[in-house]
Q: What sequence folds into this?
């Protein structure tokens, strides 16, 4: 966890800069988040990072997310400047309370959470009856994760095996090295173990990673071809 925290502290500005250089990827993902949050009121963001997505959701989709947690002080500082109230902690250590929110969001964070089952258990307690959890991430079985895991194994994007098969501006290797991607099936099983039910799915980034920044995609149902997949389940 200390390695993960220090990486995000050191490269906080690099995180935002990468998304700003890949705006179609950013908006494809933002549209996917909005897809399951459009009718939400009280939303808590687990691992809100710099608050970049929360800022875009409010500005472009009318979805307000003002509360969250973030382990990285560097990231949290940026999110606070963007108007969020952020507790600097991990979800495993946090006290999320009981029946406080109608939605809990995990956007791009499951791969950086060590004890994801414990995180889902806390989210379940924090939700009001009928509330929803929205879990969004790169699935381990996707094209992106296969590339990420190869880059992680060889330690760089500059390897002959990756030549001409990754995006022109790939996700920073510092964040790739500390991630642990899980399959969609693994995450669904954990959600069910926590008591969640009635899972629904949506996906985006359905083009090969080389072309994923060529347009901002609208979300589509399912999880069979997207490199970014959302699971929405109910308490």
A:
């Amino acid at each position: 966890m200390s390695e993960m925290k220090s990486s995000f502290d050191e490269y906080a500005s690099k995180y935002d800069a990468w998304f700003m250089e890949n705006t179609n990827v950013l908006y494809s993902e933002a549209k996917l988040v909005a897809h399951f949050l459009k009718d939400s009121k009280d939303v808590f963001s687990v691992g809100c990072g710099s608050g970049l997505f929360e800022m875009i959701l409010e500005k472009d989709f009318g979805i307000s997310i003002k509360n969250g947690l973030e382990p990285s002080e560097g990231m949290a500082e940026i999110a606070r400047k963007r108007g969020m109230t952020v507790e600097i902690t991990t979800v495993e250590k946090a006290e999320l309370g009981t029946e406080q929110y109608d939605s809990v969001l995990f956007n791009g964070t499951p791969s950086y959470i060590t004890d994801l089952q414990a995180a889902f258990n806390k989210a379940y307690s924090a939700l009001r009856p009928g509330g929803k959890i929205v879990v969004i991430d790169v699935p381990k079985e996707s094209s992106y994760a296969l590339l990420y895991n190869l880059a992680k194994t060889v330690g760089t994007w500059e390897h002959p095996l990756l030549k001409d098969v990754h995006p022109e501006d790939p996700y920073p290797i510092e964040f790739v090295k500390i991630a642990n991607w899980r399959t969609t099936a693994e995450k669904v099983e954990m959600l069910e173990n926590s008591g969640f039910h009635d899972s629904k799915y949506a996906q985006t980034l359905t083009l090969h990673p080389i072309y994923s920044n060529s347009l901002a995609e609208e979300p589509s149902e399912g999880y069979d071809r997207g490199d970014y997949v959302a699971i929405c389940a109910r308490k």
